[in-house]
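Our platform keeps sequence and structure together, in a single record for each protein. Such a record has a labelled line for the sequence and another for the backbone structure tokens. This encoding replaces a full spatial description with a residue-level series of whole-number codes. Below, we set out a record of this kind in full and without editing:
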Amino acid sequence: MLSVLLPVHNGAGCVGVAMESLLAQTFAGFEVIAVENGSSDATVEVLRDWALRDSRIRVHSLPEADIVAALNYGLERAQGACIARMDADDVCAPERFELQMRLLDERRDTGLVSCLVRHAGSIASQAGYAAYVDWINSVRTHEEIALFRFVESPFAHPSVLFRREIVERLGAWRAGPFPEDYELWLRWLEGGVRMEKVPEVLLDWHDPPGRLSRTDPRYDTRAFFACKAGYLHRWLRDAPIGHRKLLFWGAGRETRRRLRALQEMGVQPDGWIDINPRKCGQRIDGVPVYAPEQIPGPAQCFVISCVTNRGAREQIAGWLNGHGFEAGTDYVLAG
């Protein structure tokens, strides 16, 4: 059986559409664990009405619970050997569960399956969100997911489906000053879980003004880097850096602030890279700042890039690739 975890907070006006898309699935062997958490609207009544229509829907209510508590509460009550996520304001394609379960059945070494998602909003007013959706959809294979894990979360949270045994082995969602889903993917990837995507759009992903990723400080840029810093630190210990110099790309104030968490763990740069001519030739934290054309080749240095300005990541990767650097071997993108 497949168990679908559906936390709902003040979702009376939208959860019905999500439920319709779940009950229209071509894969019928699932249950829905709907956990209402601290709603002030008619969410409980709406969910109970849906439960009367289909016995596969089970409704629970938690007062004043956050999403982590709601997810773990639902997980404890789920009966399935596989777990899927869904949000109250999103919509599944009818074949979503069928295709995701088929991929898990065909690839026994895969533990988590996601899919491509459709930007379900205004591109004009949500350009950053639209760009993120494009990036998510470009990272599809396990190798790509593992390689670019330190850029940002490679999945839309409600798009995933995974084997329950992973939770038993590596733990479930954790509460803290970080995005609960991104921390989970980093922990599971570090634990050796293979992750893939069905290369089809199977979820319409909305980004309403009240979504936690827009309103909660756990999801801002600094929280994301603080979350990834420990995992990146451990990854670097096993990376093929050898005796090469370690260079940080991005000498701007905000980039340096993000990298401070990594430095506090003992990862100190031998130099900085920046395109600003006013910074090049200076020293920061006692080490020099180089222009890109001044840095040695991949045989002599390993680069960590944490620049997050729109378009900068692609430009940096393009420059490094064009000068013989290989992602994961000679550099890592972490922003």
In short: The radius of gyration is 22 Å. The mean pLDDT is 93.
